[in-house]
Specification:
Blueprint lengths: L34 E3 L9 E3 L9 H9 L3 H20 L3 H7 L5 H8 L6 H36 L13 H24 L4 H18 L5 H28 L5 H29 L5 H17 L10 H32 L2 E3 L3 H21 L2 H11 L10 H42 L14 H5 L9 H14 L3 H20 L7 H40 L7 E3 L3 H12 L40 H16 L2 H17 L8 H6 L3 H10 L4 H27 L5 H21 L4 H24 L1 H4 L9 H24 L6 H32 L11 H29 L12 H26 L32 H10 L6 H17 L14 H19 L6 H10 L17 H19 L3 H7 L19 H29 L27 H13 L8
Antiparallel strand pairs: 1-2, 3-4
Length: 1173
């Protein structure tokens, strides 16, 4: 569902409507030269033209802006109101009325469910599914009526004509069995495959009507004519919807994607401008107090937004505007990912093919990830302030205040030095995005502004002009030429400050804590500079791609674009399969060049802990039986059973002799149809839907009375007012997607009431009552319809919670568990990517068999699944508020915290993956044509040399032996996922990694090497050198077992040490030449800032910053999950008396290992002084 990308006011910007099915997308807040950000107090991000003051809008314009009634919204409302109106009007033709008889009212009802306002790609998919299920339902209905008729013939007493009207128990029982089976099967399919939602509702309408009326049919000819009438009515309805979709205001999925891309470009330009303004504030403000104070004020502002809205400070407003822009950009990026497949499959008359669209989306992703990464500077300062205890109050000690002030001055100086380069970069990104969007016709070329100096403007190149890309390249080169200036200035300033301290205090020692803080600060600067350079490179690639498409003639003319067979095949498989095609082991994957590549278990399907993979034919047959058994026992099958029971709760009335006539006369079939529409899997959504459906039906009853009696029961006037009220209803359908089911029922109900009255006027009262339904006037029929809808909705709600409800809270917990598990898998892939880069084993990313290609495919697959899960989390988090709480209070804050932390971790991991796969070239002046366009790898510009990989090889030599925090992060995420899913308690001690643990271990290793060089002569033998290297390995205190191989970390370390000795032996022959050329990096020099231009150093710094943010969020995630599931802890502490004895095991917090050890020592010391019971 699309939401408005910005809240817009006045005449400067237009409010674009949101559409629940992405029929069109809203325009973003525009940012262009001459426009400026308005710091008003209403919290809206309003942009004004600097040259002239906008006129005050009129009352009508303000109302239109507030309601979002712009041209696209009105056109969509018109398009959505036409199908049911045409369905009512077409029945007034004599030929149509004589053919359909008393079932003509079904035509406008089915046209509503056809959703003609969908974009063409989505509508065609829905149309195919609708046609399939309508044809299947007609065949199934005919089979049911034939078998029921045979049962009637076989059970009619001899000598009695079975064609005589009358009740037959066997016929009714057969119809009831077929109805139950059809509803169970269709709703099971609906629960398993969400794309079948509306088609199953249409299928249920057909089957419900056919089986309930089939119980009273006495001849097979009547049954055939009846089913044919239903089939023809539904096909005619879909034909009307198809004609409106294709001919009336046609909207293709490519147009939707194009508008979303335009919105993303605008939001990205706005974000970079807000980020520039925020960095300017950091040149003088206290960034540590600003980060914590802004978060506190925003949280208070959110809590008091409904009552007493406080006035925000300027820094809080700037941070809020940046945060909102980033949130909208993330949402729009998620919509791009969801809508891209429909646009690629669309049949269109256009210029860009499916590959071009995919390339554009990838290039945009390459830009928006580093731009969003730069916005994490606020979060970084907040974490630093919290970690060091720099709270915003007067209780801070003087020495801590002085330390904070020193740090603030350094950062203010750094931000001032960053001002000019970032100005150059932000201008290049802004103009580059605008240029590429214009060249690719994503956004229109802006109208030229009136200027007094016409001659000066005549020769000026503007975005979109041919040759403008050269100006952008010059700006990027200017920015790249200054690469390293900021870091060199920081190094110089730090060295000067250190020299001053040593002059003032000759005994001053550079402490390890001070060294670590300086190293962290250096990492952050390198992280920001690396992101700025990668963003500049990505913009250059985007602009180069746009210019290429113009130069090769792609953008010169339109042509017919058809989806390929492979794309259609993937679409078909995606519909019938609940999972995407997974990367599995196969013989061709095991053979790549001359190397053998072994893939881990993560590439395979999920294992069954109770069964090994089948081998023999009998085992495969048994596996098929188990699959069938698991299908019947699945949750989807249970939902289908509930839906069938709910339908039969009302349908049983049609199959009993004493109530069959009552069922037909009172039209209770529509109560059964309401069950099909209103049945949901979760209780929260069902309760909310029940209230909305009843409320919508009450409104529909009132509007139907108005429609019918305001025109004095005239046909033409009633049709006009049907269109008018449907036109109004479509506004809420478009603007409020949460209420779509209720609004659809409201439209269907008012059409059902009025269309029936028009049908009676057309064919006459006698013909209308021929089907067994007496005529009721509108004022009597409307309340009866209300009772049917309310009764059907109530039955659907009761069967949702009976006998045991599936709550949205349970679903939310399971979705969160799945999200954490996917995040763990994503982190594992990122870790494998890092390891392959260090070992130089990733291979060619263009080779489908290479590990780099496999990691890329899996990373995109898991990222897509997470993007699909995030909207589900939001929906269930909203629906659970409607569930009544029975028992203790629901811990909503804890679940919101888990959602927030999981989303943040996924964002940081995405940034880590991007950093690994898009390193900055070694030389800033590297031409774009030599850069690898692949998303996976940027290889060496020349054939691989030892000098190019000197720093990476040095890091790879010690990486595994340091026992990095990566394993603990992966283990903790997996454990949290399983604990949240099963509800089992967490262990009392989890291996939570500390921030910058890798850096800390490298620093300790560096000191160990220095100590080793001080105590050993340089001319030691090679064997002694090798032994000393292996002995200096930092052995972990806790053994970690590799669950894949069964080896512990000591075995792995020994194996790596052996490999390291082999590598060292091979390198020893070329070490002399490398040392003479400056290409060899000693282990103790790994973290030296002078290596910042070494390939891999900047990426390592960025990974350290991102992993630190992940560690902080992971710690908060552990606390939130432990508060929900508890901790396996039966320890206790004795403080001297029985009354003072406490049981930590009864709590739900994970304690500190140091405190627990101290407590044990105190217990041992006081043994005998206290009693333990």
């Amino acid at each position: 569902m699309l939401k408005n990308s910005a809240k817009q006011t006045g005449q400067v910007r237009k409010q674009e409507p949101e559409h629940p099915r992405d029929a069109h997308v809203s325009s973003p807040d525009r940012y262009d030269n001459g426009w400026e950000y308005d710091d008003d107090d209403d919290g809206d991000d309003v942009v004004h033209v600097a040259e002239q003051k906008p006129k005050k809008p009129s009352s009508l314009e303000r109302i239109k802006t507030k309601l979002g009634l712009d041209a696209p919204t009105l056109l969509l409302m018109l398009k959505g109101s036409l199908p049911p109106t045409l369905g009512v009007a077409i029945y007034q033709a004599d030929a149509v009325a004589s053919y359909f008889g008393s079932f003509g009212y079904l035509i406008p009802i089915i046209t509503v469910m056809g959703l003609a306002i969908l974009p063409r790609g989505k509508f065609m998919m829905s149309l195919v599914l609708n046609l399939f299920l309508i044809c299947l339902g007609s065949a199934l209905a005919m089979l049911a009526l034939w078998s029921a008729h045979q049962a009637r013939i076989n059970t009619t007493p001899a000598g009695v004509d079975p064609r005589l009207p009358g009740y037959n128990a066997s016929q009714s029982a057969v119809c009831g069995v077929w109805l139950f089976f059809s509803i169970w099967l269709s709703n099971t399919l609906r629960a398993k495959l969400p794309s079948f939602n509306l088609p199953v509702i249409i299928f249920s309408i057909l089957v419900n009507v056919a089986t309930t009326y089939g119980a009273v049919m006495t001849t097979l000819e009547a049954a055939k004519a009846f089913v044919l009438q239903l089939l023809t009515a539904m096909l005619a309805s879909l034909a009307i919807a198809l004609g409106v979709n294709l001919l009336i205001i046609p909207i293709s999925s490519r147009q939707v994607l194009n508008r979303e891309l335009g919105a993303c470009v605008g939001l990205l330009r706005k974000t970079i401008s807000l980020q520039r303004a925020y960095l300017v504030r950091l040149e003088s403000d206290d960034m540590f107090s600003l980060a914590t104070r802004t978060e506190t004020q925003l949280s208070r502002w959110d809590k008091a937004a409904k009552s007493n809205k406080p006035k925000l400070t300027k820094e809080a407003k700037a941070a809020k505007a940046l945060q909102e822009s980033v949130t909208k950009l993330k949402e729009m990026a998620g919509k791009l990912h969801a809508d891209a497949p429909f646009a690629k499959r669309d049949i269109a008359w256009g210029k860009l093919d499916a590959r071009d669209l995919g390339r554009i989306i990838n290039l945009f992703r390459n830009i928006h990830i580093p731009v969003l990464g730069m916005t994490t500077i606020t979060d970084i300062f907040k974490r630093i302030s919290q970690r060091r205890g720099w709270v915003v109050d007067d209780s801070m000690p003087p020495e801590m205040l002085a330390e904070k002030e020193t740090e603030k001055r350094v950062w203010n100086s750094v931000m001032r030095q960053m001002h000019e380069p970032f100005e150059i970069l932000s201008e290049a990104i802004d103009q580059g995005l605008q240029h590429a969007a214009i060249r690719l016709e994503i956004t229109p070329r802006p109208k030229p502004k009136a200027s007094k100096d016409v001659e000066a403007q005549a020769g000026k190149l503007l975005p979109g002009d041919s040759g403008f890309s050269q100006l952008l390249d010059d700006k990027i080169k200017t920015f790249n030429s200054r690469r390293g200036e900021l870091l060199r200035a920081w190094v110089t300033e730090r060295e000067a400050a250190l020299q001053e301290e040593r002059i003032d205090n000759p005994e001053y020692k550079y402490s390890a804590a001070r060294l670590e803080r300086d190293q962290v600060q250096f990492y952050i600067l390198l992280f920001m500079e690396n992101l700025m350079h990668t963003a500049g490179m990505a913009v250059q690639e985007f602009v180069a791609f746009a210019d290429t498409k113009v130069e090769d003639g792609t953008m010169n003319r339109s042509r017919l674009i058809l989806p390929g067979f492979r794309r259609l095949k993937k679409w078909f498989i995606g519909i019938i399969s609940n999972e995407d095609s997974s990367a599995e082991q196969s013989p061709d994957m095991m053979e790549g060049n001359a190397n053998i590549i072994y893939f881990g278990d993560g590439y395979n399907r999920k294992k069954d802990p109770e069964h090994l993979p089948p081998v023999t034919a009998w085992q495969h047959f048994g596996q098929g039986l188990r699959t069938l058994s698991s299908f019947f026992g699945s949750e989807e099958s249970a939902f289908g059973f509930r839906a069938a029971c709910a339908t039969m709760t009302i349908g049983i009335i049609a199959f009993l002799e004493s109530t069959q006539r009552f069922f037909i006369e009172q039209r209770l079939v529509w109560a059964m149809i309401m069950v099909a529409i209103g049945m949901t899997m979760t209780s929260g959504q069902s309760f909310f839907g029940f209230l909305c459906r009843v409320g919508g039906t009450v409104i529909a009853m009132c509007t139907s009375l108005v429609i019918w009696y305001i025109v004095n029961e005239r046909t033409a006037g009633a049709i006009v007012f049907i269109w008018l009220f449907t036109f109004i209803d479509m506004y809420f359908f478009i603007k409020y997607p949460r209420f779509i089911p209720a609004i659809m029922i409201m439209i269907v109900t008012q059409i059902l009431i009025v269309a029936y009255e028009l049908q009676v006027m057309k064919i006459g009262k006698e013909a209308s009552e021929r089907a067994g339904q007496p005529f009721y006037p509108t004022y009597q029929l409307a309340p009866y319809r209300l009772a049917c809808v309310a009764g059907g909705s109530l039955v659907a709600f009761l069967w949702t919670i009976f006998p045991s409800p599936m709550t949205d809270r349970t679903w939310l917990r399971r979705d969160l568990s799945a999200t954490l598990y996917l995040v763990a898998n994503y982190f594992s892939i990122v870790n494998s990517t890092l390891q392959s880069r260090l070992d130089d084993t990733e291979g060619d990313p263009d080779d489908p068999k290479s590990p780099a290609r496999q990691l890329l495919k899996l990373r995109h697959k898991i990222y897509g699944k997470v993007m699909l899960l995030l909207p589900s989390l939001s929906q269930h988090s909203y629906w659970e508020k409607w569930e009544p709480t029975v028992g203790g209070k629901y811990p909503r804050e804890a679940y919101d915290e888990i959602i927030l932390r999981s989303t943040r971790i996924m964002g940081y991991l995405t940034l880590m993956a991007y950093t690994l796969t898009h390193p900055v070239p070694f030389s800033p002046d590297t031409p774009p044509e030599k850069r690898e366009a692949s998303e996976t790898h940027v290889p060496n510009l020349e054939p691989a040399t030892q000098n190019d990989r000197a720093w990476l090889d040095a890091l790879a030599d010690v990486f595994e032996s340091l026992s990095p925090t990566n394993h603990t992060i992966l283990s903790t995420l997996t454990l949290l996922s399983n604990s949240l899913l099963s509800g089992q308690s967490l262990p009392p001690f989890l291996p939570l990694p500390r921030p910058y643990e890798m850096t800390r271990r490298l620093m300790r290793l560096s000191h160990a090497h220095e100590h080793h060089h001080h105590h050993h002569h340089p001319s030691v033998s090679s064997s002694e050198s090798e032994n000393s290297d292996t002995s200096s390995v930092d052995v972990p205190a806790i053994k970690m077992l590799n669950t894949s191989t069964g080896q512990d970390d000591l075995d792995i370390t020994a194996m790596n040490a052996c490999n390291h000795r082999n590598k060292t032996k091979n390198k020893r022959d070329t070490m002399a030449s490398l040392e003479s050329g400056g290409g060899y990096i000693n282990t103790e020099d790994l973290l030296d800032p002078r290596n910042m231009e070494q390939p891999g150093y900047a990426e390592f710094a960025a990974l350290q910053v991102c992993s630190t943010l992940v560690c902080d969020d992971l710690e908060a995630l552990v606390k939130a999950v432990s508060g929900l599931v508890g901790v396996v802890d039966f320890s206790f502490r004795v403080t001297g008396s029985q009354s003072d004895m406490s049981m930590p095991g009864s709590g739900s917090e994970i304690g500190s290992l140091a405190e627990r050890r101290t407590g044990d020592e105190n217990v041992r010391k006081r043994k005998g002084k206290g009693k333990v019971h």
